[in-house]
Automatic annotation (TrEMBL):
It holds the Pfam family Inositol_P. Gene3D superfamilies: 3.40.190.80, Fructose-1,6-Bisphosphatase, subunit A, domain 1. Belongs to the inositol monophosphatase superfamily. PROSITE patterns: IMP_2. This is 3'(2'),5'-bisphosphate nucleotidase CysQ. InterPro entries: Inositol_monophosphatase-like, Inositol_monophosphatase_CS. Keywords: Magnesium, Metal-binding. The keyword Iron-sulfur does not apply. Transmembrane segments: none annotated.
Length: 270
């Protein structure tokens, strides 16, 4: 069991650690980028994983658990160990969020690393090395992009820019649809949420079966930028549970979120 840590200074120290590790993992992944890395298929052939994913995962695990051996570990590319459930504080990691884009040579992929304490993220980093973009946040202070504060959009436009799948549009509440401009597919879920945080888009809808590692770092970055990632029940997410999958989610500025959640109720079950 972890010792309970509540000092903001501890999370700032953890942010420095996970930033260092994410940069190292991202640079290692970048060395495979557009060089035809070996690809395997998991989850009964539904999900690709490349040698770059594993190489980045190895770097993250070595650097993070060497520095914080009492923290738990949850990663997309490591077999789940239920020992994490007995830990107050856990690293939640996706070595490459957007593996399909990475394999296809597209630049929108990132390393996602969060520190989760008592079920909520307290430090988070997204590093997109092909774009040279670094997002960071802790429980205190601003969300940062390349060291500069970012915030969600606050302008009141008649049309909202929402990232969602084309087939999802028809499931939105009819009256809401007319005020939505659909943004083309963004292959990395974590990066898509970061786009809400830095104000490029107004919101996004996350289909069911996303995982802790897709979300935890981006969740905190969005929160510190003035937005939130909620379920259709209007509640924040809890991480490091036995089941790491989530239901339909909405991410947006707080001023936009209630209407987006209300309009998305038809997605429940899809």
């Amino acid at each position: 069991m972890n010792a309970v840590r509540t000092s903001p200074d501890q999370w700032i120290s953890d942010l420095e650690l996970i930033t260092m590790a994410a940069k190292a993992a991202g640079e290692r992944a970048l060395s495979f980028f557009r060089k035809n890395p070996d690809v395997q298929w998991k989850n009964e052939g539904r999900s690709p994983v490349s040698e770059a994913d594993y190489a980045a995962n190895d770097i993250l695990k070595e650097k993070l658990l060497t520095a914080r051996p009492n923290y738990g570990w949850l990663s997309e590319e490591t077999d789940d160990d239920e020992a994490r459930l007995g830990c107050d504080t856990v690293f939640v990691v996706d070595p490459i969020d957007g593996t399909r884009a990475f394999i296809a040579g597209k630049e929108v992929w990132c390393v996602s690393v969060a520190v989760v304490h008592h079920g909520r993220p307290v430090a988070g980093v997204l590093f997109a090395p092909a774009l040279d973009e670094l997002f960071q946040a802790t429980l205190t202070g601003d969300a940062l992009k390349n060291g500069m504060p970012v915030t969600v959009r606050t302008e009141k436009d008649t049309v909202l820019r929402i990232a969602l799948a084309e087939e999802t549009v028809r499931l939105l509440e009819h009256g809401y649809r007319a005020g939505v401009s659909r943004i083309a597919h963004v292959p990395s879920l974590a990066y898509r949420i970061a786009m809400v945080a830095d104000g490029r888009i107004d919101g996004t809808i996350v289909k069911k079966n996303s995982h802790d590692w897709d979300l935890a770092a981006a969740d905190l970055i969005l929160e510190r930028a003035g937005g939130a990632l909620f379920g259709l029940d209007g509640q924040p997410l809890s991480y490091n549970r036995p089941n790491v999958r989530h239901t339909v989610l909405c991410a947006a500025a707080m001023s936009v979120l209630p209407a987006l959640i209300a309009a998305s109720q038809g997605l429940d079950g899809h």
